[in-house]
Description:
Elements: H1 5-41, H2 46-62, H3 68-94
Helix pairs in contact: 1-2, 1-3, 2-3
Amino acid sequence: MANIKSQIKRNRTNEKRRLRNKAARSEVKTRVKHAVTSAEAGAETAVEDLRVAVKRLDKAAARGIIHKNQAANRKGRLMRRINSLAAATAGDGATDA
């Protein structure tokens, strides 16, 4: 346990930031998961879920919770995954001919 006044304050602020960052990271993961599951199910809200996931990733990068390149990589990976799901579902209907 620190006994220097400034270090005690620093520990308090670090804990607040850690909890805030943890909540934001968790939210990003949840939104990405929602976007993927709604795309797999072919739900009408798939586009909206994707938009919200990308928005959360951008916001986390802007706030410094994740690095901007990591946000870009995650967005690219998410887009590729959702596009491949969309192509797979579109391809299923085209095989009837």
